[in-house]
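Section 3.1: Structural characterization of target chains.
Under the original work plan, the team committed to producing a structural model for every single-chain target entering the pipeline before any wet-lab resources were allocated. The record below documents one such target. The sequence was received from the expression subgroup and is listed exactly as submitted; it comprises 171 residues.
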Amino acid sequence: MRLCFSWKGLTLSALIDFRFGGEVFSGTDAGLDGSGTSERTLEYRDGITVDGMVNTGTPEDPVFEANTLQITGQDYWGSMSGIAGNYIYSQTNIRLRELTLVYRLPGDLLGDSFVRGLSFGVVARNLGFLYKDIENFDPESSYSTSNYAQGMLWYNLPTTRSIGFNVNISF
């Protein structure tokens, strides 16, 4: 969706992209959790008693009781990171794809010169997200451009942001 506002020779234009649906697997988050280097793994550093039931009987004659055994955060996150479903995120996002500000000099300022029009401006691309479901990655980035790796994140580089200037002269 492109929005455009003009006033006295100034034009402000914004391009907003929407994407609804789709999923992505973050191997990066799984790897960081499994190695204990993500911020998320600060939780349970002192251990955790996992809510669940334990069979204190035999397989033939089970007796289920509430779990009271505490495990380390390393054991917990090492196990959690091996479950791919924990790292599936929505690709839904709304982003500010482009923002342009252009100033067009009034024709009477150019006088009788051979220049018929002059404008200059600044353009910025990939400025940021207005909304996204996944916290720490661009949901449109992917491991590869091949068909077998779409929807997978593996230590991707950040999306590039660019800012440029332009001058337009009409003769």
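The longest strand covers residues 117-132.
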